[in-house]
Design goal:
By secondary structure, this protein is of the alpha/beta class. Helix content is 43%, strand content 16%. Strands 5-6-4-7-8-3-9 form a seven-stranded parallel sheet, sandwiched between helices. A four-stranded mixed sheet has the order 1-11-13-12. Strands 2-10 form a two-stranded antiparallel ribbon. The protein binds adenosine monophosphate (AMP). Adenosine monophosphate binds next to helix 5.
């Protein structure tokens, strides 16, 4: 069980309390300046200098994306030249905009339905990608469809029949629609993105991705993003990309500078008690507790609720609408503790 305090926390009282009862290791994260100077020698060019067009510059400024992250600065020039990209970057690096911006820019120049398809390993990630694309493409009237398991097929078929520009999908459900939804195909697809390719393959989506690759045009652009380059990812890369450019950013520091990280070494049998104590001492903060199993997530959420904490579980055995409901309640502040398995790790 690990714990993330999702807002700035009162480090003094927290560490003082815990020093008396258990071993505590603190780890100070570098400031953004320290992190960036350690990885880059000169500042990144601006989005405008990278060749991003005005409607997207406006959206970037309204999202307060003032300057490109390293992966964006590395990938955008090649992507805008039309090259296939392998991006070695983790969540938190800004990789979503790194692949979304070139797609949106080309879509602006040549608007077409079913222009791009983005494959993600989890439903939550698909929703987040879609939200970011819609925010970046807000001035262009971009239409996105989210095609993930756990939601009604019929609603998704209707969404696909409206010919969205971009489909963000988990592979299994996309394949279901390719097989069973009349009139839907990706025959005119121009861009394919395989996001978090290592996780896609860890979740055994490899065979389904192979089937999807067979029914989409070979003449397309492909972006593959992965946090790690395993042998399986390299094989997928060979099967799906043509003469790609590899861009890689240092992912040594990926947490925000305000996040305080602690390691608590405590006896296994006392974990729940310590968690409750911690929840109490940090009750002014919102909190995500990660658990290894669905059962632990459910059990801890119940314990916390019985003790009057506003906790909500989030795990893969909940229905998709319950999962989205839990996330919304947590994000809006309606619940202060989210007890989650790694479906919530983004
Ligand atoms: P990602 O790695 O794509 O999940 O992005 C991590 C976070 O960084 C998301 O909350 C994005 O909204 C944010 N982000 C992406 N690009 C930028 C940027 N250029 N400036 C500031 N924030 C960004």
């Amino acid at each position: 069980m690990s714990l993330v305090v999702a807002s700035e926390c009162a480090s003094e009282s927290f560490s003082a309390d815990y020093n008396s009862s258990c071993t505590l290791t603190t780890c100070k994260m570098p400031s953004p300046e320290e992190a960036s100077t350690s990885t880059a020698t000169k500042p990144n060019p601006t989005f405008k200098e990278l060749g991003v067009i005005d409607p997207l510059l406006d959206a970037l400024s309204s999202l307060s994306f003032t300057k490109p992250t390293d992966i964006q600065a590395e990938a955008l020039p090649y992507a805008l030249q039309g090259r296939d990209i392998i991006g070695v970057a983790e969540t938190g690096s800004g990789k979503t905009a790194a692949f979304a911006l070139p797609i949106l820019q080309k879509l602006w120049e040549d608007p077409q339905p079913l222009f791009a398809c983005i494959l993600a390993p989890t439903r939550e990630l698909a929703y987040q990608i879609s939200q970011q694309i819609e925010a970046l493409g807000s001035g262009m009237g971009v239409r996105c469809a989210i095609i993930v398991g756990g939601m009604p097929m019929m609603d998704q078929s209707i969404a696909l029949s409206k010919r969205p520009h971009i489909v963000v999908a988990t592979p299994g459900r996309l394949h279901d629609h390719l097989e069973n939804t009349k009139g839907f195909s990706l025959r005119n697809l121009k861009y394919l993105v395989l996001d978090e390719a290592d996780r896609l393959l860890d979740l055994d989506f490899g065979p389904i991705i192979d089937k999807i690759l067979k029914v989409i045009p070979k003449e397309r652009h492909t972006y593959l993003f992965s946090a790690t380059m395993t042998a399986k990812v390299a094989k997928l890369q060979r099967a799906s990309l043509v003469n790609p450019v590899r861009v890689e950013v240092s992912t040594k520091y990926t947490t925000v500078p305000t996040l305080l990280q602690y390691y608590l070494f405590i006896p296994y049998v006392q974990k729940d008690v310590h968690l409750v104590h911690l929840a109490n001492s940090l009750s002014q903060n919102s909190m995500i507790v990660f658990t290894r199993t669905v059962h632990d997530a459910q059990r801890l959420a119940l314990i916390l609720r019985n003790l009057d904490f506003s906790a909500v579980p989030l795990h893969g055995q909940m229905s998709q609408s319950a999962r989205l409901g839990a996330l919304t309640k947590f994000k809006s502040g309606g619940r202060s503790i989210l007890v989650a398995t790694d479906v919530a790790s983004r």
